[in-house]
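Run log // design_07
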């Protein structure tokens, strides 16, 4: 459309230039002759007038006619239309409208005037095109007739036709090139979009393994990369969910299976010794307590995942929590002849959830006590670094293999499953610690080496109330 507008305007400008030049030439010649012919016509010197028209028409390469005020031809350089009436707009503009000069272009045979050029309407070069120029003949200030000059303009029309044909050809070439480029660009743009759409549809049907090729640059490349990252995270989330369900089922099934065996022994041995029966019932009670712990921890994690757990912030000294938890767990550590050493260099007053941070410290210190051998040592260190409180708990237990360290905060993840169950843990303690610390905007990490113990570090931002 832009090319069409430019081409049409260009043809119009060229046409206007050609016609303006031809008009100026014809009008100048006609007006000059009108001055010479006016007194001859007014004085009825028809022979001299005819001679003037014939001579001047040959020089100008056209036809000259003198018309009276009624529009009848009184003299003709061709001597063919004398006495005929000429009905042309250029004649009427002089005799009726009072103009002194006028110019127009006509196609002979149809009397069609040329006033507006159309780019898609070819010029009929087989027809004869004529330019008419009229000028008033005046005597004593009165119009006594007019001089009409007609000349063929086929050469000018052919030039316009040639230009029109070239512009039409250029237009078709440009349009074809534009369409080709548009189709190529459309294919280049829509193909990755179609691939991405198919990938999303497959993902919607549950196929989380789908990936799309990353090609090109710019937005399409970023979209493909983002989709693949999202797909990978969804797949990992789905695997994590399945693993969680499997681990939860296994953890719940183990104590239930143990209780079933113990109850079947009691049922099918009615004569069982009272002391043995009491031991079996005690074991059943222990397994029930273990189930309660697992369910309680699961409910805590579900509550945090659903974002329904809120922080009840208050101002307190974090050092008080560390001291109190160490005092309560000292009963357990004393039985194992373990030494808990506290190194508190700052009270770390903060604005946080007292109960939840108590659970964080309790789970980490309890975990250290469980995995530290009898007679071992546990160091608890609390310092303030800038606007963070840093708590580290170091034990001299068996340590954690490098391969297991990235998963230590996963739910139900156990480095040594048999050993872990002996300690009575649910496998959810560190997961709860991680979630509670994240809720406070902090982080928890582990550094460990097999045979040399482990160090758990919690960093918490200090918010003053």
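design_07 sequence
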């Amino acid at each position: 459309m832009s090319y069409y507008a430019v081409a049409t305007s260009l043809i119009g400008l060229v046409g206007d230039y050609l016609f303006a030049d031809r008009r100026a030439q014809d009008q100048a010649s006609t007006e000059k002759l009108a001055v010479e012919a006016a007194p001859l016509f007014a004085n009825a010197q028809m022979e001299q007038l005819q001679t003037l028209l014939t001579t001047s028409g040959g020089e100008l390469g056209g036809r000259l006619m003198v018309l009276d005020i009624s529009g009848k031809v009184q003299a003709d350089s061709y001597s063919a239309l004398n006495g005929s009436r000429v009905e042309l707009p250029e004649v009427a503009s002089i005799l009726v409208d009072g103009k002194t000069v006028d110019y127009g272009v006509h196609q002979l045979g149809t009397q069609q005037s040329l006033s507006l050029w159309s780019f898609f309407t070819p010029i009929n070069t087989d027809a004869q095109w004529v330019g008419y120029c009229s000028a008033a003949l005046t005597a004593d200030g009165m119009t006594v007739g007019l001089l009409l000059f007609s000349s063929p303009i086929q050469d000018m029309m052919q030039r316009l036709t040639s230009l029109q044909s070239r512009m039409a050809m250029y237009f078709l070439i440009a349009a074809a090139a534009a369409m080709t480029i548009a189709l190529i660009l459309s294919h280049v743009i829509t193909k990755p979009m179609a691939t991405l759409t198919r990938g999303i549809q497959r993902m919607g049907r549950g196929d989380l393994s789908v990936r799309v090729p990353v090609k090109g640059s710019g937005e399409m490349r970023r979209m493909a990369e983002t989709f693949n990252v999202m797909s990978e995270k969804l797949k990992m989330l789905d695997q994590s969910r399945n693993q969680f369900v499997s681990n939860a089922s296994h953890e719940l099934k183990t104590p239930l299976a143990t209780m079933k065996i113990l109850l079947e022994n009691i049922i099918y041995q009615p004569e069982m010794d009272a002391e043995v029966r009491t031991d079996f019932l005690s074991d059943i009670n222990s397994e029930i307590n273990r189930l309660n712990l697992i369910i309680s921890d699961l409910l805590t994690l579900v509550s945090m995942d659903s974002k329904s757990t809120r922080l009840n912030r208050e101002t307190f000294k974090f050092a008080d929590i560390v001291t109190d938890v160490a005092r309560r767990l000292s009963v357990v550590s004393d039985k194992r002849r373990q030494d808990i050493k506290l190194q508190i260099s700052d009270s770390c007053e903060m604005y946080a959830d007292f109960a939840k941070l108590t659970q964080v410290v309790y789970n980490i210190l309890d975990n250290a006590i469980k995995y530290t051998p009898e007679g071992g040592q546990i160091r608890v260190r609390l310092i303030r670094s800038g606007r963070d409180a840093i708590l580290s708990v170091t034990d001299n237990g068996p340590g954690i293999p490098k391969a297991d360290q990235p998963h230590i905060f996963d739910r139900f993840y156990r480095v040594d499953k048999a050993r872990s169950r002996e300690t009575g843990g649910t496998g959810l303690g560190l997961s709860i610690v991680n979630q509670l610390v994240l809720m406070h905007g902090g982080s928890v990490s582990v550094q460990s080496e097999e045979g040399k113990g482990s160090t758990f570090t919690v960093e918490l931002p200090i918010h003053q109330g």
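The chain is about 55% helix and 20% strand.
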